Amino acid sequence: MPTLSSTSLANRDHAVLWHPYTQMQTAPLPIPIVRGEGSWLIAEDGTRYLDGISSWWVNLHGHAHPHIAERVSEQLQTLEHVLFAGFTHPTAVELAEQLLALLPENQARVFYSDNGSTAVEVALKMVLQYFHNLGQPERRTFLCFRDSYHGDTFGAMAVSSRGAFTQPFWPLLFEVEFIDVPVPGREAEVLAQLHTALTRPNVAGFIFEPLVLGTAGMVMYSPAVLTEMIRSCHQHGVLCISDEVMTGFGRTGPLFASSLLTEQPDIMCFSKGLTGGTLAMGLTTCAAPIYEAFLSDDKMRALFHGHSYTANPVACAAALASLELTRAERCTQQRQAIEDAHAAFRREIEMLPGIRQVRHRGTILAVEYDPGEGTSYFSRLRDAFYQLAIDSHVVLRPLGNVVYLLPPYCTTAEELTLLYGVLRQMRELVLDFLPAPTLPEYLHD
Ligand SMILES: Cc1ncc(COP(=O)(O)O)c(C=O)c1O
C-alpha cells in the first residue's frame, strides 16, 4: 500500500479529492494508477494490479486498447462534440443503426445520455410520460426487485433496494412496489407475488436487472422465469425495462442477457461496457409504440430530457470501436474460454467447507463464502478479503461475503489462475474466521 511519505500523487489526491463510496476519514490512501495494459493496471511505483472486476464492470477488451484509442483519436481530430438538439453526426447514427440491428427485434429507437443512472432515469421518464401522453397519468407505480440496484440519481435510487446507502434520501424517493428475486427454488412464490402486485391499480412499469443482480451480490435467476414475468406484465399492459447496464455486451454469454428471453422488454438501458470502458455514455432504447406515443403536433408531448454531452461523438466512436471488437470471433472465443474456466473452478470449490454457494453465468463468477452463523463477521471479512486481494496485486471488490470475478475478456488462462488462487486463499481465511468445530464426544480426551 502507498504511504503518505512515498506517494506524492496519493497525497495530492488526499488534499483535494472526494471519492465515490468512500469514507474519506478512515479509507486508506488510494492507489495511484498511471497506466493500463490489457487486464493490468500499473501503479506509480511500478506495481502491477490484475483488474479482476473490469474497473467497476466497464472494461471489455483490456485497458488502453489500441484499436479503441485509434478510433477515439481520429474522432477527436474530426469532431469532438456538437449539441444533439437540432443537429446530428455520423458516429451517433452509425452506432444507433448497428445496435438496433443487434438488439431484440422490437427495439426501434435509441436515446443517448451520459451513464447507467441517466439511462435508467430516461427509461423511467419514458414509461411515465408514455402513460401521461396516452391520457392515463394515474398509471405511475413501478415494480422492482427488492435487492436491485439501478444507479445513484433520484429516480434510479427510488427503483432500487432501500439499503443503508440510500437511507438519508428515503423520504424523498417515490414509492414503488417491491417483489423478491425469483432465485432457483423460489420461482413459483415470486410469480405469485408478481401476480398480486399486477392486480393493483396504476402499475406502469417493471424494471429489472436481467438474469444477474450485480450489486446485490451477483444474485442469479433464470431466463425462463423472467420471460414468464415479462409476459404477465404485458398481459396487464405494464411496460418492462431491462436494465442491461452491467449485463450488456457479452457479460452473461450472449451479446445481451435479454437475447435469452422469449418475451422481450419494451425498454432497455445500457452503459458501462457500451464504450468498452473508455468513456462515459449511456443509452436507452425503446419499442416503436413507446416512441410513437410521443409523436404529436403538440410540442408538450415531446420527451423533455437531455444532457449537454448527449451522443458525444468521441464516446460514440469508442462504442463503435468496442462493438467491432466484441463482435469479432476472437472475442466470442475469449468469452467462452473464461466461461469454461469459471465452470471448472466452480466444480472444484463448490462443495468445499467455507463455501455457501458458487454462482456462474457467462464471464461472471460469484463465490458466496460461508462465515458461519454470525453475519457480524461480514464487514470484517469484506475488508480482510479486499486487503488479501490487494496484497496479491489483484483488484476485487467483495460485496460482503460474496466475492466475484468479472474480468475483461482479454484475461488469459494464466491470469485467471491467479484470480482463482486468491479466491482459494479467501476460503482459507473464512475457515480461520469460523468458530472451531465442536468435536464429537468420542474424540474428546
Ligand atoms: C444494473 C445497473 N444499473 C445502473 C447502474 C448505474 O450506472 P452508473 O454507475 O454508470 O450510473 C449500475 C452501476 O453499477 C448497474 O449495475
Automatic annotation (TrEMBL):
Residue positions, PTM N6-(pyridoxal phosphate)lysine: 272
Keyword S-adenosyl-L-methionine (UniProt): yes
Keyword S-adenosyl-L-methionine: yes
Cofactor(s) needed: pyridoxal 5'-phosphate
GO cellular component: cytoplasm
Protein location: Cytoplasm
Pfam families: Aminotran_3
PROSITE patterns linked: AA_TRANSFER_CLASS_3
Similarity comment: Belongs to the class-III pyridoxal-phosphate-dependent aminotransferase family. BioA subfamily.
The protein's name in its UniProt record: Adenosylmethionine-8-amino-7-oxononanoate aminotransferase
Species of the source: Hymenobacter mucosus
Origin organism lineage: Bacteria, Pseudomonadati, Bacteroidota, Cytophagia, Cytophagales
Gene name, Swiss-Prot/TrEMBL: bioA
